[in-house]
Amino acid sequence: MAKYSYTEKKDTRSGFGAGLLEAGRQNDKVVALCADLTGSLKMGDFQKEFPQRFFQSGIAEANMIGVSAGLTIGGMIPFCGTFAGFATGRVYDQIRQSVAYSNKNVKICASHAGITLGEDGATHQILEDIGLMKMLPNMTVICPCDYNQTKAATVAAAKYNGPVYLRFGRPAVPNFTDPDQVFEIGKAQQLYEGSDVTILACGHLVWEAITAAEELLAEGIKADVFNIHTIKPFDAETVLKSVAKTRAIVTAEEHELNGGLFDTVAQVMAMNNPVPMEAVAVRDSFGESGTPAELMKKYGLDAENIVKAVKKVISRK
């Protein structure tokens, strides 16, 4: 099993900023809107290079969504950005009616998701957003794992025709995927091949899954590890193929257990091939203030807990 490594840590929000700029250079129909968080979402380079294609909505997120939907009627491809808590909970009605129901080509770009937002605390650390977005018909939900993949996902979203929810974060995390990758929406990325357990992770938990898989291998446990960067549409075919071999699943996500990746996987397995499952996720709880590292450890979102979940699920086979 080849080991993954990285030479630097970078924040995924910067990957979004770089991807937005690249998408803007590739297509002059790409426009950007922001709710008074240009610096936080790293949208400044796009604003500087394409000032006529950048719109500052101010702290008026619902209006930003409505304007974005309207821009699509003129053929524009709007990327609207704000914090994940504001991009979903605050404007759910506008997204449901003006974007999802109308199937508008709007890209909802949500930064500072999950508990790794850190010291800003529970009010900003939304852990329900994937569930809110994946339940909407027509909505594609993407949660990339590092800077390079977030950049590639942003470029891919610009080429995709339809509503997209793109989730990323603030902290610097290991940047290990190919900088020249072509992001394929809806296709799981296999990281390791094994026969004892299937580990499915998204976002910041992908690197933790890699770390866990290497620790497990040292104990003789071989894991089939996948980066589920697209929650919806879900790559059921790939996962079912893996589970036919391993007969056990562990999911790992920086999200509530209810409504996130685990729910999606459990639904697929219940209808196709029920097997023992365990989950690494936040359990019916809000977050709190603290450093990202402290919170990931307290809420059990780390490699250590993935290892424990794997051993537990294997014991249930």
Task: Describe the overall structure.
This protein is α/β, with parallel strands linked by helices. It folds into 2 domains: 10-174, Rossmann fold (3-Layer(aba) Sandwich); 189-315, Rossmann fold, CATH 3.40.50.920. It is 39% helix and 20% strand. It is built from 12 helices and 14 strands. The chain has helices at residues 12-26, 44-49, 61-73, 84-88, 92-100, 129-134, 147-159, 205-218, 236-246, 261-272, 292-298, 303-315, and strands at 9-11, 30-34, 54-56, 77-83, 107-111, 140-142, 164-167, 172-174, 189-192, 197-201, 223-227, 230-232, 249-256, 277-282. The strands form 3 sheets. The chain has a 7-stranded mixed beta sheet with strand order 3-2-4-5-7-6-12, with helices on both faces. β10 (197-201), α8 and β11 form a beta-alpha-beta unit. The relative contact order is 0.13.
What key phrases describe this protein's structure?
single chain; 317 residues; alpha/beta; Rossmann fold; 2 domains; 7-stranded mixed β-sheet; 5-stranded mixed β-sheet; 12 helices; 14 strands; 20% strand
How would a textbook summarize the main sheet? 7 strands, mixed
Mean pLDDT value: 96
CATH topology name of the largest domain, in short, is: Rossmann fold
**In angstroms, what separates the terminal alpha carbons?**
24 Å
Strand content: 15-25%
Rg value = 19 Å
Which regions are unreliable across 5 or more consecutive residues at pLDDT < 50? none
Residue share in helix: 25-40%
Q: Helical stretch count? A: 12
The strands making up the biggest β-sheet line up spatially as 3-2-4-5-7-6-12
Output the CATH homologous superfamily of the largest domain: Thiamin diphosphate (ThDP)-binding fold, Pyr/PP domains
Count of domain modules: 2
